[in-house]
Design a protein that fits this description.
By secondary structure, the protein is mainly alpha-helical. 67% of the residues lie in helices and 0% in strands. The chain has one domain: 434 Repressor (Amino-terminal Domain), CATH 1.10.260. The termini are far apart.
Length: 103
């Protein structure tokens, strides 16, 4: 999406508040990013977060897709300060789930 928008890694880093090396590492699969990072990248690209983190077709069922859409709608209604808290908590939750799955 960055390349489609003709945005350099440096410019995306500047717009998202992230380090250019981190952007490069994410794109090359050398670093994992949390949901809050993706939120900042999506905002910098001026696209919805859901567009940035879409799962490939067939990986998610319609019920789950509807639940994600419902959560996105609820989060959009929150004040920015609470959105930041929400994404921070969600990132921690996802990290915890990943560590459980790896055991």
């Amino acid at each position: 999406m960055r390349k489609t928008g003709k945005i350099s890694q440096e410019k995306l880093a500047e717009l998202s508040g992230l380090h250019p090396t981190f952007i490069s590492d994410i794109e090359r699969g050398k670093s994992n990013a949390g949901i809050l990072t993706y939120y900042h990248v999506a905002k910098a690209l001026d696209i919805p977060l859901s567009e940035l983190i879409k799962m490939p077709a067939g990986k998610i069922d319609k019920k789950t897709e509807a639940q994600i859409a419902e959560m996105a709608m609820l989060v959009r209604k929150l004040p920015k300060s609470k959105q930041i808290i929400f994404f921070s908590v969600l990132k921690g939750l996802l990290t915890g789930l990943e560590s459980i799955e790896s055991k």
